[in-house]
Amino acid sequence: MSILYQNEHSGCFNYDRSEKPQIEVKRVAKGDTGILSLKENEIVFVTEGRIRFVSNDLSSCEGLKGQMLFLPAGRNYSFGALADSAITIFRFYESIRLCDNFDLENLNEEKAAASSYQPRTASPRILNINILLWHYLDGLNDLIEEGMRCRSFFQIKIKELLLLLHSFYTKKELQDFFSPILSDDMAFSEYVRLHWKDFHTVTELANSMHMTHKQFYNRFIPIFGTRPQRWMNEGRARIIHNEITSTRKQFKLIAAENGFASDTHFTRFCKKELGKTPTEVRYGKTYARDNVK
Q: What is the pLDDT of residues 123-145, one digit of tens each?
């Protein structure tokens, strides 16, 4: 069945023409590879095939048909299709709320109270797709493949997805799934993860939150476990390393996209954080991974 009055639909201001719509269905052929640079949290459902994801800290996981993966914002991932695959991607441009009365801060409070809970790494987390989510995805994917790209529709379906997660998965399962972003100060930590790449310095990031450097520092350390500038440098180094080794972009473009005013500053940063010049990183045999955690 095709959408009626297609011109009215595509001419609406709510029609999503962006390259990264809030919900997207993609087919990936076996052997295809690519880079995901996430400015927002994503949930990826593997509805066909098998895909390997490698995070910019070099941890990896495989998503199989029937699984969903949570990919936290502020990180880069390379992916490779190990079979002809299909995925449905949900992008979260705002803080995640499982329902109007239960957000991730509630989940984190219950996590902290559970003595059996063990902290998880920042690598992608995986859950199996239950039968109700399969029914939900089947209908949604059919509509999107017929051309449905309405932003209002996407927002409704994302709210429905989160309600299904809240209603039909245990809190322990959800704690594990969302563990890379759970903290005692969710509003602060999520803002940092979603927006840090927009700023060149810690002071700029702190100012955007109307905080002094000291206030920002005191809230940052307990959550991220390191100094803000070191965390930002390591994150930028991971992004740059992925772009140098996994794309054929010119170094000048990579430098500009990551906020470097000159080639000299870019090269100096690479030598300090990656242990090599950009040329050595791209064409050399080894990579000083000890400098990038």
A: 678 999 999 999 999 999 999 99
Q: Which residues are CB-contacts of 73 (< 8 A; sequence separation ≥ 6)? A: 38, 39, 40, 41, 42, 181, 190, 193, 194
* 103 token code pair: 């957000």
CB 84 within 8 A of CB 41: no
Rounded to 10°, the helix 263-273/228-246 angle is: 100
* CA 96 to each of CA 21, 37, 44, 99, 189: distance values in angstroms, whole numbers, following the listed order: 17, 19, 15, 9, 13
By CB neighbour count within 10 A (0-12 exposed, 13-18 middle, 19+ buried), where does 250 fall?
exposed
Beta bridge partners of 102: 99
Buried b (16+ CB within 10 A) or exposed e, 6-39: eeeeeeeeeebeeeebbbbbeebeeeeeeebebb
Of 165, 159, 163, nearest to 178 by C-alpha is: 165
Nearest alpha carbon to residue 66 among 121, 137, 122? 137
Query: 230 vs 123, 197, 210, 221, CA distance in Å?
Result: 20, 13, 21, 11
- Inter-CA distances, 274 with 87, 113, 244, 268, Å: 33, 39, 11, 10
* Amino acid present at 16: D
Segment 89-108, tens digit of pLDDT = 999 988 888 988 887 877 77
Distances, alpha carbon 49 to alpha carbons 76, 87, 99, 106, 206, in Å: 22, 9, 31, 35, 43
